[in-house]
Design a protein that fits this description.
mainly alpha; globular; 3-stranded antiparallel sheet; 611 residues; single chain
């Protein structure tokens, strides 16, 4: 299997030296200024290779300048730009190609054969829209995207006893399609005993920086380094909610350090980071200390601290400098909270009303559904490179590949009550999303940022595990609160999936939920696991029951058995040559041949990738 290496920008925190010199700064930032291989190039390279291994679908490449039907406003921007620049694009995906893609993107699950057959037999012209609406209204949609947001918000062990509470809170707002700006307001403003009653406060609580093992004060309020905790959370929410990586200016001014990284941050000073952090300057995390026992998974979050001290001691950053308390000011506008307004309430109001909040969110979801973002990296916008009318000096270019599209999506998101489900449906109903991944003409690298074809992606770790479970008819048995569930995407905590499943999922990129999630490139270790892991081998053993045992008993003939294995695994019937190979395998040993056939299908690129 080919490795498509991705370079990720790590968060670089300088060592605790009082005055780092120029050489030390250069070394600290070296990983940041290395030429980065764009994620779009990896997506295009993977698509070119994987699409050649897929069964033929669709027609010939659409001629330069030719437009497909504009199904949503997205198409006006995507195909209008291609027409203007005379860029050819792939044909529309066939129904079976679209259906498998839609099921996986919306629900994280491969289609059940009977439901797929019903969709394919439907002759109504709007059946794709109907399918998208049905999938995005399903419980499976809630399962998949709950898992996604828990990875994004790093809902793991650091949430302690509150993890189940957070899990059910995310499920609830997804099921209700609660406005996302309200969700984020809860994440920024929650206060109380977080592990038991305030799910939103767990997002801030999980970023605690422990100061010491034992308290030196009677109230044990010194167990957490409050300023460092605030700094960590400021970096976290800026990346996740605004798409801005402010880690560097948490340690030093941007000038003299970020000229090769981010022109917007070059003009920002460390004092401006302090002012952004000061929105949480009065917010404390009080670690529970009971009867001499440190309950470091239970916290109370309140707003009783004196403020953000610019000279406070730091455990994880270079020493702070300055005098007195920083006053809260929003990094993007310089705005301060209103008179009498709680600082965190003010931050939530300013952030969720700013276009960058909406840009960052729709760009993140676009990347999930389309292969890579309109801005990449998705958490490192450079706002000084955003303005088409005033482009940056060479060698810099405009950062968004299609700024008009991104701004139109951001505006539509706001106009539709910040509905996450609306964003997903709008993208999936567009012709841009519904292009084939197959490009029959000669592909050129310059076509990539135009989204001239649908880009393949390897299934995520939970998607892959659950697809194997569904294809073989052998779900697992995992804990979800007091219930048992069969799929990993239904779990609050993937670390409780058992050693074998945990190891399998880590190899395929499952986040530990302590670090930010990232895409994992295909590797030889993944290939070996797919061939030998019990996650696969025990499920293709007909003695274990499941689909194979049922088909071996009930399939009336070998042709039917082979066809059913293809339908349950790769969501299509076999071609004539594939059918013959399957029949030959069954003739030698029906049971062993069926097991080998499904094992081979589970190891095929067609199963491993969403195309």
């Amino acid at each position: 299997m080919t490795r498509f290496g991705l370079l990720f920008l790590p968060v670089v925190l300088l060592a605790q030296t009082p005055r780092p010199n120029a050489e030390e700064f250069e070394q600290a930032h070296k990983p940041l200024i290395q030429p980065e291989r764009p994620r779009s190039k990896d997506a295009a390279a993977a698509t070119a290779q994987i699409s050649s291994a897929l069964p033929a679908r669709g027609g010939s490449a659409v001629a330069k300048g030719t437009l497909v039907a504009h199904r949503t406003f997205i198409d006006k921007h995507v195909f209008g730009r291609m027409a203007a620049d005379k860029i050819p694009h792939a044909p529309m995906a066939s129904d079976d190609e679209f259906a498998r893609r839609a099921w996986l993107d919306a629900t994280g699950r491969i289609p059940e054969p009977a439901s797929l057959a019903t969709f394919l037999a439907d002759r109504s012209p709007n059946k794709r829209d109907v399918l998208v609406d049905k999938l995005t209204a399903s419980d499976a949609f809630v399962d998949k995207w709950t898992y996604y947001f828990e990875d994004l918000f790093r809902a793991g062990g650091r949430m302690g006893a509150g993890l189940n509470l957070f899990h059910y809170w995310v499920r609830e707002w997804l099921k209700l399609d609660r406005p996302y700006n309200e969700v984020v307001t809860d994440l920024l403003t929650g206060a109380g005993k977080s592990s038991f009653s305030v799910p939103g406060a767990l997002y801030y609580q999980r970023d605690f920086v422990k100061a010491k093992d034992d308290p030196e004060t009677p109230d044990a309020h010194d167990l957490v380094n409050q300023p460092d905790t605030v700094d960590e959370f400021t970096v976290t929410y800026s990346k996740v909610l605004l798409g801005l990586n402010v880690a560097c200016i948490s340690c030093h001014d941007g000038a003299g350090h970020l000229e090769k990284v981010n022109l917007f941050l070059v003009k920002k000073k460390r004092d401006e980071f302090f002012s952004q952090a000061a929105f949480f300057g009065k917010t404390r995390q009080i670690m529970n200390w009971e009867n001499g026992y440190q309950a470091n998974t239970e916290y109370t979050v309140d707003d009783e601290a004196p403020g953000y001290d610019r000279k406070a001691d730091s455990i994880v950053r270079v020493p702070r400098r300055g005098n007195g308390l920083s006053q809260p000011r929003f990094l993007l506008t310089g705005e301060a909270p209103r008179d009498g307004e709680n600082a965190r309430d003010g931050l939530a109001r300013m952030m969720t009303s700013h276009i960058q909040f909406r840009r960052a969110f729709v760009n993140r979801i676009w990347a999930e559904l389309m292969g890579f973002g309109i801005v990449e990296p998705i958490d490192d916008f450079d706002l000084a490179r955003y303005d088409v009318k005033n482009p940056p000096p060479a060698p810099w270019t405009i950062q968004p590949s299609n700024p008009a599209l991104l701004d139109a999506m951001a505006a539509d998101f706001g106009a539709n009550n910040h509905s996450f489900r609306h964003v997903v449906r709008t993208i999936m109903k567009s012709s841009a999303y519904q292009l084939s991944s197959s490009f029959p003409g000669e592909w050129q690298e310059k076509y990539t940022p135009y989204y001239a074809r649908k880009y393949v992606r390897m299934l995520s770790a939970p998607e892959l595990h659950d697809a194997i479970a569904l294809a073989t008819g052998l779900p697992g048995s995992f804990s979800s609160g007091t219930e048992k569930v069969g799929l990993t995407m239904q779990m609050p905590d993937p670390k409780k999936a058992g050693a074998g499943v945990q190891s399998f999922m880590r190899t395929f990129g499952q986040s530990n939920r302590d670090d930010m999630p990232k895409k994992t490139a295909p590797s030889s270790l993944q290939a070996m696991l797919l061939m030998q892991s019990k996650v696969v081998t025990e499920r293709v053993n007909s003695a274990k029951g499941g689909l194979l045992a049922s088909l071996l008993e009930k399939a009336s003939d070998n042709k039917s058995l082979v066809e059913q294995l293809y339908l349950h695994t790769v969501s299509r019937k076999p071609s004539a040559p594939e059918l013959q190979i399957g029949l030959d395998a069954l003739l030698k040993d029906r049971r062993r041949g069926a097991e080998n056939l499904q094992w081979a299908l589970l190891n095929s690129p067609e199963f491993l990738f969403n195309y």
